[in-house]
């Protein structure tokens, strides 16, 4: 299988940081450095991702799971570590790119679906316009082609094409999320980040969105990183999983293995409490 | 020090003029880039053409001929007052209303109909210099967007226009890409005037006094209004319902940008050239033509 992403010893500290930050924080302690009060959101996170694979990152609020994804999508700057993106025989060191290169990478190779549609969508323009924005950033400049592509994507994600020119403000939460997914998929990115995509949606809508994500993965062979605190989502989607606590990876491996036979006490509690 | 007014030549002090000229040089070197400068207080409210005026005062010298127009007219309040101010503070300059006689033209919202020459400079007054203001409120982010030539969100605006109204509804200040990189706000000139910037022989300067920016379209630059591949840019159409090109009620010309107004006597729509100098010239030409005809008839 082709490798798509390799992350090595990634760290992110909020605050000025000190020499003791990493010694005095950790899964067994806390994520706030007692010496300098900096927040160690993530430390020494390493993983790899292959084409068509779904990797789950699981953990409670504040465990640093979203931070990892935000840094990979350039929303935040990492403190340390390396991330290499493999693209058609080219290697890109993600954390060394300049702004323009980052933007190019975002528009051409990555897709992001946020928990809050407000972050991923512009609520002042129509659903179709949101998808057009991404296609225009990608370099498409033909109005009718953009229209038909947007229409195709929206029907693919089961948003009624009649609602294409409506403003996402008038949509239900589930529909907004579908529009976000359609937007993320617009440029056929090889890598998709999903940050708590089903949180806050009702159960039937959750199931439909998860179905959609699985279909997309099977159809397009898109690699995905799924961040969630929901064990059900992990069980359904992810082939491999990282469990994070206080910014550290405490357990990683095949999802089935982690859920059936959790090694770390925290994971054991997590799995037990979910049932 | 000018004796007549008690002000130095050109009202501004030498340092201020030098700064404006340096900003102009930079603006020419980076076509379409908005060069910040320290816009001075002028004896008129910001938003009344102080940016254009500062450019004019910094560039004009004895022996030059100035034309000031406001929406094509030499006689409207803004044009008259600006011209009077320059006449007062710059002795030994000439003013004119004839486009071809002017070496420097300060204009509000129009580029003259008559093609400008390499010897001329046109200064446009700009209320809003940044075309990205409509899509991005943060100036910091706008600067980055300009730096990276990231203009896709302007096209999203066009997309939304076409979705809602079946056409691009921007009537003036049409975003235009200069030499394939920066997109500028060409000031509130009508779409009709945008193609005049393309490969213009004259230097076009833009001054925004309130927003403290100067930018330029150097002579013989590419000026490309943004559009989609399949929805091209088009200028205002002046055709009636029968498909005939409307003509000016005064001079009969059919090529110019027309103003529409209602005749108070009969309530009918009347069209007239917006560029008065152009209209007068067409009238002159028509009269000459008529005279020649008369002479020919007499001789035969």
From TrEMBL, chain A:
Keywords: ATP-binding, Nucleotide-binding. One of its GO terms (molecular function) is ATP binding. GO terms for biological process: organic phosphonate catabolic process. Residues 27-271 form the ABC transporter domain. Pfam families: ABC_tran. PANTHER family: PHOSPHONATES UTILIZATION ATP-BINDING PROTEIN PHNK-RELATED. This is ATP-binding cassette domain-containing protein.
From TrEMBL, chain B:
One of its GO terms (biological process) is organic phosphonate catabolic process. GO terms for molecular function: 4 iron, 4 sulfur cluster binding; lyase activity. It holds the Pfam family PhnJ. This is Alpha-D-ribose 1-methylphosphonate 5-phosphate C-P-lyase PhnJ. The lineage of its organism: Bacteria, Pseudomonadati, Thermodesulfobacteriota, Desulfobulbia, Desulfobulbales.
